Sequence to fold (222 residues):
Amino acid sequence: MLHYLRLENMTISKLHYSSQGSTPEDHLINIQKACTYGIELVQLHLKDVSKAHYLEIAKAARDITLRYQTRLVITNNYEVAKAVKAEGVILENLEVCPTQIRPHLYSWQMIGGIANTLEDCKAFLAKDVDYITLGPFTSTYENTSSNTLSLNSYNAINKALHTEKPIIAFGTIAPNDVTALIEAGVAGIAVADGITTNFDTIKRFNQLLQASATGEIRHTFE
Fold:
């Protein structure tokens, strides 16, 4: 059973896989594996590729995810997200304004923002994003960079925001971190390395993230 968070007119999965690979084609291989193991949402995260190549890979990723009834979100490129009819786009910064691109998307497509600080979160919420991916998290406090977030950080940010918009934690997340993160106020998790190195962890994450309410995204392709 897939587990979702209810947004105003849509749902968002509680477990996200941020795709990885040494080449764009490797991303597709890993997306296929993640779908086979039951991932709920894939975030296609390509860097340093042309828009034409991004579109080509996104179309292939859309074909894969549709076969498994898996959601697909495109990083940064909202035009590609619309072209392949992905479930949404997630923005790494506000160089592209969510309120300005929303009219260019289908009404059912969601917009997420990737944040690292309370100020980042507030900036995205002011632009009416549907959810925020906040991180990076690590449960290891030694030799971490200054932008790494702890459980205390999530607690403090969630209390300061007073928002009903879902906050998704991302970073170096292991199964034994999930309960504490949920208790810190996050609504779900996004994982890259922890899944790429062991796709079987998807099953365990899904068990730990069971939702009290489930549903399917309802939309029509316009």
The longest strand covers residues 131-138. Strands lie at 4-6, 11-13, 15-18, 41-44, 71-75, 88-91, 110-115, 131-138, 167-172, 188-191.
